[in-house]
């Protein structure tokens, strides 16, 4: 084999592993192109240059392919042999076949022997590639056995690797539900790299003794191996090193099924901390037992209990004598007019349509069978203790959680710019709301997220007022629409130090995919809750807390600075982990529209919450839930467990490619500026000092540092582009340019930005199309300027100035009027009383601010108080809520808005406000 260990390129160190699959595909294609040129080229100087370039690419590819089953190490030895024998024509044919096999993924369906070079073999690869194009994607071939790769960690020789691989190959049977190939690595570091760069790995067999260090300089592992000492690891026992490796693999890829093969005292090993292993094998255990155990483990994740039950139900002959004429498709199959509905949707969706909860199906309101099992699998996939399916969106999921946990007059701390469902949820629950202000990004007319300092300060105000017991919940959005992500673990830990039983509701509507990526996962609610639970149970934490407490007690506990200016630790004897997360599964994973989930990690759920949660769930959940949505949630969970890592990685790769082009293309930079980490997260919240995840020389290797340390980070898969330099506002750019001209759909704009979101369905072709459109638009703006007259240029300059300089400061929450406050010492307000007070017409009036009427009232000393929600789009959150005093800052902001859609505001009448008489005798809080 060619010795590549000496090569010191960024790729050797896999510093670009964030884009490893694109690097892999692009390098193989470039190698194929170089070989084709070499075969045709006659110039010796040109040939030497190409041979050198081919050597570099092969060296780079050998490192990457070391962690994949196809092409195998034997295949690569064959490739190097052809190269060294200068058989370039034959090598070009082999590489061409290999590239076709990778593109068509035919290696998943049959053995590809690269030593075969006849025309029939080449035609077979071509046919596979054509079939893939016809189908759109190889996975659509549902009859094929799903393919995965088994990682074996063992210090084997090349000959021993082939023996092991052949042994597992010989166990394959046509009746097996899955087919797999084997990847072997020889060290601790190589095992970690393999699970990072190879998404096909679904199972891992850790065997015997293996060294710690890889032969490669793997800088990609720098952040994951922090704190580990090579010397300590080298002196660990076989069992200790295997257990540590399994825990790290579980942290990176928790879905991987792990098995231990030990040559030592198997009974003693089994009694240790082996929670990440599904089973331990003694070295004498034969391959057949291992083979069947691995397949059973994969099958456990592959099952879709409710979807399978629904498919089985659709095949049964039934007599329908209940509601729903469309059940079994009867009302449309017999129709002379509605038959085209079946032509469009197909018959299966109607055969599966029913309101039955028996016959193999289940009830969503009281699940006992396949729905119950599907929800248990969802909890496993997302790291929750309990998970619940919701078929009418995350707006409803949010209301269920709030109603289950909050009683009237309980205080809830809420980020003011959260989704409107939370504001209405507060009304329904009768909560007393204390709004928290996010840091503003005035230059882009958007908010960031709520600083921890602000949260702690608010909790301490309640502590000082003797009202901390009434504070029941902290409700935050993670991540925000614009991609701002909290340091969830830090927020929870420091808040629990002030109030040990505080409940956290994390609205992760846009963050369901994060559970399936090792960089994103630590900033999810369920992972943070589980990590903190384990941390507080440990003796190491008790020692850390004792040392911290001794230092803290020496300070003045009545001084807020004591609490605000240092990290806080909760008392392990008092703390209770109570975290809830709501996911819009349909937004970022596979599910039909309105498919959502509630995930629970609450140590008090069974004792205190289960009964009210059930009642809240019954309150908001239809008695006729859509079974197709439930089935899609079940399938979406399975897909996330089986290939979520791969799909999310590809999503991030696509986003990074788009960002790279926008960072470096001169014309695009002139009109479209991608907002970086530093643009959306102020310096005081970036402890790492990382301003951009990308560097032209070192690539994307700063991302982990920021995500590990900073209070806030930006999700790179959400690309916010400032378009002020175009002179076109966000709403017009979205509709007139992107949608009407090119059919590009986006969700969110601000006055001078547009947001592009990648997801697990985004392809490299989609990114290429978007870049092509943006370049065309940039050229159009360039031509517009070049061909404009002097007056026209002045108009364009005025528009650009307005969108880049004349941006009104975003207003903070003013305050609730005293009529809706219980205490002047604390900021919460009774939003429910204010909301329903407006139902009586005599309590409200309209005041216009465009003619100065409202301003005149405030100058006379009147507190003008909103009687409704006022929500401009964009930015899409309430500028005013019922019971809130209208401040000068809010008025200035509303006057400066140039959007046409403001819910709760009628331009011809004005703002709906409470009369002075209504506020004189408000309902009791």
Describe the SSE topology.
Elements (H helix, E strand, L loop, with lengths): L19 H21 L3 H22 L7 H12 L3 H17 L14 H17 L11 E7 L4 H12 L9 E7 L2 H10 L3 E7 L22 H5 L3 H15 L4 E6 L3 H5 L6 E6 L4 H16 L2 H11 L14 H4 L6 H6 L2 H4 L18 H13 L3 E5 L2 H13 L5 E5 L4 H10 L2 E5 L3 E2 L4 E2 L4 H13 L6 E7 L6 E3 L1 H11 L4 E5 L17 H13 L1 H15 L6 H5 L13 E6 L1 H4 L7 E7 L2 H16 L6 H38 L1 H6 L1 E2 L2 H4 L22 H7 L2 E3 L3 E5 L7 H13 L10 E5 L6 H23 L3 H15 L24 E2 H7 L6 E4 L5 H7 L11 E3 L14 H9 L4 E3 L1 E2 L3 E5 L1 H5 L5
Parallel strand pairs: 1-2, 1-3, 3-4, 4-5, 7-8, 7-11, 11-13, 13-14
Antiparallel strand pairs: 6-15, 8-20, 9-10, 12-17, 14-15, 16-18, 18-19, 21-25, 22-23, 24-25
Widest sheet, order of strands? 6-15-14-13-11-7-8-20
What's the count of strands? 25
Summed over residues and divided by their number, the pLDDT gives a mean of 89
- Gyration radius, in Å: 30 Å
Please state roughly what percent of the residues sit in beta strands, choosing from under 5%, 5-15%, 15-25%, 25-35%, 35-45% or over 45%.
Answer: 5-15%
| Overall 3D form | globular
* Major sheet description: 8 strands, mixed
The percent of residues in helical segments reads 40-55%
* Helical stretch tally: 36
Query: Runs with pLDDT <50, length 5+?
Result: 4-14
How far is the N terminus from the C terminus?
A: 79 Å
Strand-pairing-aware structural class: alpha/beta
